[in-house]
Write a structure and sequence with these properties.
Layout: H1 3-15, H2 17-31, E1 40-45, H3 53-56, E2 60-66, H4 69-77, E3 82-85, E4 99-105, H5 114-123, E5 125-136, H6 144-148, H7 157-166, E6 169-177, H8 182-194, H9 209-220, E7 236-243
Parallel strand pairs: 1-2, 1-4, 2-3, 4-5
Antiparallel strand pairs: 5-7, 6-7
Length: 245
Amino acid sequence: MDHRSYDELALQEDEHWWWSRARQNIAKTLLGRLRLPANAAILDAGCGVGANLKWLAPYGDLHAFEIHDGSREIAAKRGLAKVEAGSLPDGIPFGETQFDLITLLDVLEHIEDDRATLLALHARLKPGGVLLINVPAFQFLFGPVDVMYHHFRRYSLRELKQKVEAAGFAVELINYWNFLLFPVAIAVRFYEKLRNIKDSSIGFKTPAAPINRALTTIVSAERFVVPYVRLPFGLSLMLIARKKL
């Protein structure tokens, strides 16, 4: 991927209704329920081009790492965090620093050894520290977009909860979200299978502005539900877990 492609990716992540807007609104709602210390030490693991850094920075002293050079360069240029080269599970930078909050937003599905990754992140949290995870949901929805973005898997609520608990965390909240668009995804997957579609042109392309705003409003409204009501399904899963004292 050339520099122009990374610039385009950064623009899409900053403006797209899902990557930047809806997911951010739900994550901020959940973090607002936590009592993070003043100037908390925060690590965004697998930060990509840094779309999360803008909304994470006000919560404390922000660190981030990314394996891909082009993405990391874009993230560092934002000037919002200490950004270093790193990878999961064995290449987490910043020495022996332990963090109050680690975010892992649509990263775990890209890593073959997710169990080792969760153990590695557990070791880098302070006692009582918080892990915030977002992943795609339901393996039966695995399709061309997952292949295009090099996903190893999608998760069920039960699987994600069990793996996080096995790594030594206490799960405080786990819920599906993007509930309202779930039927649309089912229809798309059915069409892809019916037509034997093996690739996808959907990518990161941001819809026209009115559609982008409408989708942002519709899906972001779930932030008023996700903390309080267990949804039966959704396109994504969000989890908050805490390292035991």
